[in-house]
Design brief:
9 strands, alpha/beta, 13 helices, single chain, two-stranded antiparallel ribbon
Length: 306
Amino acid sequence: MITAETYHVPVLLTESIDGLNIRPGGVYVDVTFGGGGHSLEILRRLDKGGHLYGFDQDADAEKNIVDDERFTFVRSNFRYLKNWMRYHGVDKIDGLLADLGVSSHHFDDAPRGFSFRFDAPLDMRMNKRAGMTAAEVLNTYPERQLADVFYFYGELKAARRLAAAVVKARTEQPLQTTGQLMELAEPMMSKSEKRGEKKDMAKLFQALRIEVNHEMDALREMLLAATELLAEGGRLSVITYHSLEDRIVKNVMKSGNVEGRLEQDFFGRVESPFRLVSNKVITPSKDEQESNPRSRSAKLRVAEKI
C-alpha cells in the first residue's frame, strides 16, 4: 500500500509553507499534491474558515487524498488551474504552492519508466490514462524534432547524433524499453568526468519526460493563471529542480511574463505584478540534502502579488 510517507518525502517543507505566509481563513492551492506532505502542513495552519485545493493528474496520488472537509482534490493537470477554480466558484486565492519535477514514487515505480535504474517499458506519463508514451515519441518523431527535444529539454551536446541513432535503430526494431534506450545512448554519453555518463543519461530521461508530459507548456499556463488568481498580498511559492523550469519561474516572478520581458511606466519604474519576498534563492540545508538526495538540486523562489 502506498502512503504519503512512502510516496514522496516533501522537499523544503517548512521553508515553502512559511513562504506562503498563510492566513488561517484563506484559500490556498497545492498544484502538486503527490503524497500530500505539503498539503498536510498547509491544512495544519488553516482554521475552519480556510480551504485548500490539491491538484494531481496521477491516479496513484488519489490514494493519498486527505479526509478533511477543508480539502478538495482536483483530479487534473495544473495547467487547467484557472478553469477548475472557476468551476469551484473561486475568484481569488491567497497562495499557491508548486513542488515541480518528479516525485520519489515515480522514480521508484519501475513500470512507469521514469528511471534508468530499471529495465522497464518506456512510458513516462504522469497521467497513465492519456497522452503519448516515451516509446511513441522515440518511434514516431522526425529526427530533427527528436534532436530538439534532447537539446532543449536535456541540454545534451550529442543531441543530433543521438537523434540520428534513434531513427536508425527504430527502422530495425522499435524502441520499447529503458534498457534498449540506454544501450543505444551509452556510447554518446559523456565520459569526461566522474559520474558524467550517469548525469547525461539523467538528462536524456529528463528530456523525454518533459516532452511526454508537456511540462514546460503546463508550467507556463499554470503560472500565468496563478498571476491572475492571486489576491493582493497573496504568495506564490515554487520549488524547481532544473534550470529550464527555474528560468520560467524566475521570469514570471520578476516581470509577470514567461519571457522575463520588463515593462516600465512613464517614469522608468519597472512594472510587475509581483514583489520578490527574497532576492536570494532558498536551498535545502545540508542535513536535508543528506537525508533526501532528491532535494540536492532544489531551489525555492517566493513572490508576493502586489
